[in-house]
């Protein structure tokens, strides 16, 4: 019997709503598989916790999480607490503390009607973005000089270490080789003459060890255009932290919106817990109304299953998702339906039970 010990951080806004449905789906799997079980331990951390306790998580929060196999997180950030405080003290702190340097964000069209792109099908829009998740523009390096003075300057330094750049690029080459797909690097060496020229050099250097992998390299501005005009160019994509953040919301727009966009923050060596979360935020505009789409969270749960070697279940979850997407009426309003968050989770669990 395999047990996966999961720390659950529902977080803010729609976080608890969507994570509740993801747990429902995992429990339905557990009920069907006598060799697999999950333990769930909830942590009440987030913006409400901050307003009551003055901190986003317990002082020893990282130690509390360290013993778990995985973290399942909803969303962090809510009006009333400055975003840079909430995010840097919870979400980004976890990604950094547990060296979750690979962020896997699939951009796959599961139903042809979900894309705003005319004439594009699931064959055209089916790629994986591998986002560097530990440094770059998110290194936290910078300064505010001469605050409040006319000569004020704000600095935000992108940090690209050889170790950090090589390991994400190598991971991407391995993934392209494993899945027999092309690899595209997205960077910006024409303007960012230190960080991105270095990135491009490392992409080439590491590539010499992978002569069997067909590669492409685009500037991020042109790549944004190609995402929309010819998404079929992309199979596996590797890019920096900030570019990956932005490009994957764009990718979400091509495949059904943020309600369907999943992500996994992984430490491939299994040295620390990895974290699975939808890529959307706390969506204050729809929070507490049962309007949130839980499918992104459920898809992230399937990435968790893949990561722990339960690919058959991961595949089954995606098959059911494809089936559910055939009936728009039974989906949440973002996908044109009338169902609530809970309705979608209930139906998902029910369909799983019948497999
Ligand atoms: P957002 O992703 O919360 O929302 C953007 C838009 O997408 C909104 O219109 C929202 O209603 C919609 N949306 C998002 N998730 C949806 C879902 N599951 N179903 C249906 N519609 C959905 O982005 P934002 O409004 O820019 O940010 C809100 C807060 O969330 C901010 O504090 C931000 O910093 C934070 N945030 C957190 C994370 C995270 O924890 N991983 C990610 C992104 C943003
Ligand atoms: C994401 C989010 C985070 C990021 C924010 C909330 C810090 O936008 O996971 O995509 O920029 O990584
Ligand atoms: Mn984002």
From TrEMBL:
EC number in record: 1.1.1.83
A Pfam entry, by short name: Iso_dh
Catalytic activity as recorded in UniProt: (R)-malate + NAD(+) = pyruvate + CO2 + NADH
Single Gene Ontology MF annotation: tartrate dehydrogenase activity
SMART domains named among the record's database cross-references: Iso_dh
Keyword Manganese: yes
Top-rank taxon: Bacteria
Residue span(s) of domain Isopropylmalate dehydrogenase-like: 5-348
PANTHER family per record: D-MALATE DEHYDROGENASE [DECARBOXYLATING] (PTHR43275)
Family assignment from sequence similarity: Belongs to the isocitrate and isopropylmalate dehydrogenases family.
NCBIfam families linked: TTC
Protein name, per record: D-malate dehydrogenase (decarboxylating)
Organism: Virgibacillus sediminis
């Amino acid at each position: 019997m395999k047990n996966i010990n999961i720390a659950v951080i529902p977080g803010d806004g729609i976080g608890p709503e969507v994570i509740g449905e993801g747990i429902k789906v995992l429990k339905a799997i557990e009920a069907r598989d006598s060799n697999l079980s999950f333990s769930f331990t909830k942590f009440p951390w987030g913006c409400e916790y901050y307003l009551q306790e003055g901190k986003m998580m317990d002082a020893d929060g990282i130690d509390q999480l360290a013993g778990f196999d995985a973290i399942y997180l909803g969303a962090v950030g809510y009006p009333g607490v400055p975003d840079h405080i909430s995010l840097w003290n919870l979400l980004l702190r976890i990604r950094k503390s547990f060296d979750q340097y690979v962020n896997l964000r699939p951009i796959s069209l599961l139903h042809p009607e979900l894309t705003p792109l005319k004439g594009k099908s699931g064959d055209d829009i089916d790629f994986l973005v591998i986002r560097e998740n530990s440094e770059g523009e998110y290194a936290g390096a910078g300064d505010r000089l001469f605050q409040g003075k006319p000569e004020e300057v704000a600095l935000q330094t992108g940090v690209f270490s050889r170790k950090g750049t090589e390991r994400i690029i190598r991971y991407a080459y391995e993934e392209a080789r494993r899945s027999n797909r092309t690899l595209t690097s997205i960077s910006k060496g024409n303007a960012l003459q230190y960080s991105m020229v270095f990135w491009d050099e490392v992409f080439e250097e590491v590539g010499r060890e992978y002569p069997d992998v067909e590669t492409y390299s685009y500037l991020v501005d042109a790549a944004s255009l190609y995402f929309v005009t010819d998404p079929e160019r992309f199979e596996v994509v590797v890019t920096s932290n900030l570019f990956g953040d932005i490009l994957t919301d764009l990718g979400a727009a091509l495949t059904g919106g943020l309600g369907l966009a999943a992500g996994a923050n992984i430490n491939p060596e299994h040295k620390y817990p990895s974290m699975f979360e939808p890529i959307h935020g706390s969506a204050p505009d729809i929070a507490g109304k049962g309007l949130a789409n839980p499918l992104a969270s459920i898809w992230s749960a399937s990435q968790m299953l893949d990561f722990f070697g339960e690919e058959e279940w991961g595949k089954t979850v995606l098959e059911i998702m494809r089936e559910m997407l055939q009936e728009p009426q039974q989906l949440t309003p973002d996908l044109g339906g009338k169902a609530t968050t809970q309705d979608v989770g209930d139906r998902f669990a029910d369909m799983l039970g019948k497999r």
